[in-house]
Amino acid sequence: MKDLVQRLPCYQGEGSLAVKTKKSVEEDEGQLEEQQRQLVEDRKQLKEELERVENVKKKMEEDKVQLEQEKAKVEEERVKMEKMSKELQSQVECPVCLTLPREDKAVPCCPQGHIVCSTCRDKSIRQGRLDCPTCRVPMGQGQSLLALTVIKNVQHECGHQGCSVKFNLDQIKEHEETCVWKRIPCPGSGVKCTAAIPLCNVLNHVQGCPGCKWFGKVADGEHIVFETQIKVENAGRRNGYHYKTAVLESGEGRLFFVKSTRKEGIYKVDVVMKGSQEDCEDFVAEASILNSETGKPVFKSSFQPRSLTDQNEAVFCLSVPVGALSKAWKYDENAREYLIESSVKIVKS
Fold first, then answer.
1. Tens digits of residue pLDDT in 51-72
2. Which pTM does this prediction carry?
3. Domain check: are 133 and 6 in the same one?
4. Could you tell me the CA-to-CA distances from 268 to 145, 214, 216, 313 in Å, in that order?
5. Do residues 67 and 169 share a domain?
6. Are residues 161 and 287 in the same domain?
7. How far apart are alpha carbons 91 and 141 in whole angstroms?
8. I want to staple 109 with a disulfide (CB 3.0 to 4.6 A). Which of 95, 98, 115, 159 is the partner?
9. Is 229 helix (H, G, I), strand (E, B) or coil?
10. 183-185 and 166-167 beta bridge pairing
11. In whole angstroms, what separates CA 79 from the centre of its chain?
12. Domain count of the fold of the chain
């Protein structure tokens, strides 16, 4: 009996352990059931998300098909309009110069309705030809407002070789004035090179032009774009002048052309800049003719550079009568010629 009493606590401890183990198992089973319910919920959400993605994908495919159909329809309309535009242009194209008139007024036409541009019509009248170039009926004083309407509403191609852009009548003339393919006279001396070059190819041209001297990038100080001295040969002779245009590039990539010319007894130092007239207004050119002995300025002038265009005549520049150059030039006995030394600065205003 005594032994049984002594062993009773041990059995009681084992019973408590069994109770605890059962409770732990029940808790684990509860957690497992919760995890299973969560897994079922996650699978349900995943299925719903996959269905949503599939619906979005299907909608995108439908939108893509619709977009392709609309694109094809737009392209069909574009081709149709382009064909119609070409047909209309062919009807109002001048049969003499084979170009589309750009006059903002009724276009001359014969009684049969054939048109001819005003320029060719006036030229024909001066040459005594008064008949229609298409049907040979007398032109008369007929004018076509319909042709004018067509001309205003079709696209005109840029007239500069190398440019293929098209604009309507109101914009094409403005474009051609600033087109980078517009041809300009070579900015060189005009003696050894008389080429007409596209504005966008000026840099490549002047680097190998016999009438230009390429100085490359020149910069001095915070505001001065460049400062250089140019010697001009044969200053004292009537013929045989070989004034090369100095071509300089600023640190900012601006191109400047310093031109020395003699015409009608006037010696000029001119500065031209590649850029718009508004761009030129940001700079001031300071040109001087120096005394060849002392290096000090004898004649000087400040002016804005002019824009590089198809107009090659200097307007504002350093201008000095040739007779007055005797105060500055130097005679080289060995070369038997006069030398004029010029200094040019271009400063940001």
1. 899 899 999 998 998 999 898 8
2. 0.64
3. no
4. 51, 20, 23, 11
5. no
6. no
7. 19
8. 115
9. strand
10. unpaired
11. 28
12. 3
Which distant-in-sequence residues (6+ apart) come within 8 Å of 262 by Cβ? 235, 241, 243, 268, 322
Here the CATH number for the domain that contains residue 170 is 3.30.40.10
Shortest CA distance to 100 belongs to which of 41, 159, 33?
159
Residues 174 and 249 in one domain: no
pLDDT in tens, 306-344: 998 887 777 789 999 988 888 888 777 776 667 788 888
Instruction: Residue 299: name the closest of 324, 280, 262 by CA.
Output: 324
Range of the domain at 142: 90-178
Question: Contacts for 239-242 with beta carbons within 8 Å, 24 or more apart?
Answer: 241/191, 242/189, 242/191, 242/192
Which residue carries 């002038």 as its tokens? 301
Q: Token match 């001295």: residue?
A: 229
Question: CB of 273 within 8 A of CB of 257?
Answer: yes
The single residue listed with the structure tokens 């029940």 is 26
Tokens of 271: 């500065």
pLDDT in tens, 195-234: 899 999 999 999 889 888 888 777 654 455 555 556 555 5
What residues pair up with 321 in beta bridges, in sequence order?
A: 266
Give the C-alpha separation, 250 to 170, whole Å.
36
